[in-house]
Amino acid sequence: SPAVAAGEVTKVYGSGDAAVHALRGVSVGFAHGAFTAIMGPSGSGKSTLMHCLAGLDTVDGGSVSLGQVELTRLNDRQLTQLRRDRFGFIFQSFNLLPTLTAEQNIRLPLDLAGRRRDQLWMDKVVGALGLRDRLSHRPSELSGGQQQRVACARALIHQPEVIFADEPTGNLDSRSGGEVLGFLRSSVREMGQTIVMVTHDPVAASYADRVVFLRDGRITGEMYRPTPDSVL
Ligand code: ADP
Ligand code: ADP
């Protein structure tokens, strides 16, 4: 069974004449250990789908499950805890705290959850993302690509099962974007996380194992082993 799955998910913003049907019955599964990109034009529902899968937004119909757990049956407190324990998030804007060093930013999810750090895992994540000699730097002293790799390490530090990445290369030039995704892909290959990434960049999508295409709130197709040309 998939790591994360959506079954006939619908999502409507607003009501009456102003209603926007952001998701119109989306069913999709994300296999354990797979790196999947969700692509589609602006407004097609990519972010909404990711937010519903990640329990950041509620669905209006259908179901979202993480393994055997049905997210729509959880209350807010349970959802917050599940997100904190089992999901990692990477954003377009990095979302690092400027006054903290790279190492402190990476440790933040552990500190917030009151969990002790596993030094071996910390070393593994930091090494895999090429950050060993950047740990004492603050975000302003790092390039965009390095900042996003710190954000990737932060997303992995509590050993989540699923990483959700929303346009992770949107603020990076193509070279550093490629570097970030290359590091992330090889890290999770080794460590086994499932990645769900929203992007409109064909080059970014080509790092995934599979691309799911959305249009007007519906899945219109999918492709395995994408290349930049094939997903254009
Ligand atoms: P994408 O990520 O593919 O650009 P979104 O999921 O952001 O698409 O948006 C899908 C549709 O839902 C769009 O028409 C958008 O305007 C609408 N939408 C998204 N978020 C909201 C919101 N909070 N309130 C009202 N409409 C929204
Ligand atoms: P982007 O820079 O990719 O547009 P944002 O920073 O705007 O992403 O965040 C996208 C969504 O995720 C927002 O709805 C926001 O509330 C939520 N979000 C942002 N940071 C976090 C976080 N650290 N943990 C959980 N949800 C977050």
Automatic annotation (TrEMBL):
Residues 4-232 form the ABC transporter domain. PROSITE patterns: ABC_TRANSPORTER_2. InterPro entries: AAA+_ATPase, ABC_transporter-like_ATP-bd, ABC_transpr_LolD-like, MacB-like_ATP-bd, P-loop_NTPase. This is Putative ABC transport system ATP-binding protein. GO terms for cellular component: membrane protein complex; plasma membrane. GO terms for molecular function: ATP binding; ATP hydrolysis activity; transmembrane transporter activity. The keyword Amino-acid biosynthesis does not apply. SMART domains: AAA (SM00382).
